[in-house]
């Protein structure tokens, strides 16, 4: 859990992902298209990947990726992020965290 908390607090937006996961790719694109430059942690390419995946599972991530943190706080996985985007509240979260300026 300490690794996830440390990584999640390093940038305004952090996405835990797997390089081969199509939903991870879609969520990364969503943030890029919003003008956000998130930190990406590809857990399948990280030496602590298994530890990170276990910690994400303990946080309630199911599936474990993509897991999105905004302002150091766990926002959710793909379903939650897409819901926030569609109802318009994702932009406010991003602005409040300093990830978006406009």
Automatic annotation (TrEMBL):
Matching SUPFAM superfamilies, A to Z? Thioredoxin-like
Q: Does the keyword Cytoplasm apply?
A: yes
| Coiled-coil portions | none
Where in the numbering of this chain does the Glutaredoxin domain appear?
13-75
A Pfam family reported for this protein in Swiss-Prot or TrEMBL: Glutaredoxin
Q: Which UniProt keywords apply?
A: Cytoplasm, Redox-active center
Q: Which superkingdom heads the taxonomic lineage of this protein's source?
A: Eukaryota
Spell out the GO cellular component terms annotated for this protein, sorted alphabetically and separated by semicolons: cytoplasm
Is the keyword Cytoplasm assigned to this protein? yes
Q: Where found in the cell?
A: Cytoplasm
Q: Which family does it belong to?
A: Belongs to the glutaredoxin family. CC-type subfamily.
NCBIfam families attached to this UniProt entry? GlrX-like_plant (TIGR02189)
Can you say what this protein is called? Glutaredoxin domain-containing protein
Origin organism is Microthlaspi erraticum
């Amino acid at each position: 859990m300490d690794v996830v908390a440390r990584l999640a607090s390093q940038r305004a937006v952090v996405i835990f992902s797997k390089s081969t996961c199509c939903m991870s790719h879609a969520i990364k694109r969503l943030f890029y298209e919003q003008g956000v430059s998130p930190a990406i942690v590809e857990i399948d390419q990280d030496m602590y990947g298994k530890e990170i995946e276990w910690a994400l599972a303990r946080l309630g991530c199911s599936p474990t990726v993509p897991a999105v943190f905004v302002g150091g706080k766990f926002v959710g996985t793909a379903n939650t992020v897409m819901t926030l985007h569609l109802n318009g509240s994702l932009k406010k979260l991003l602005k409040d965290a300093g990830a978006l300026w406009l």
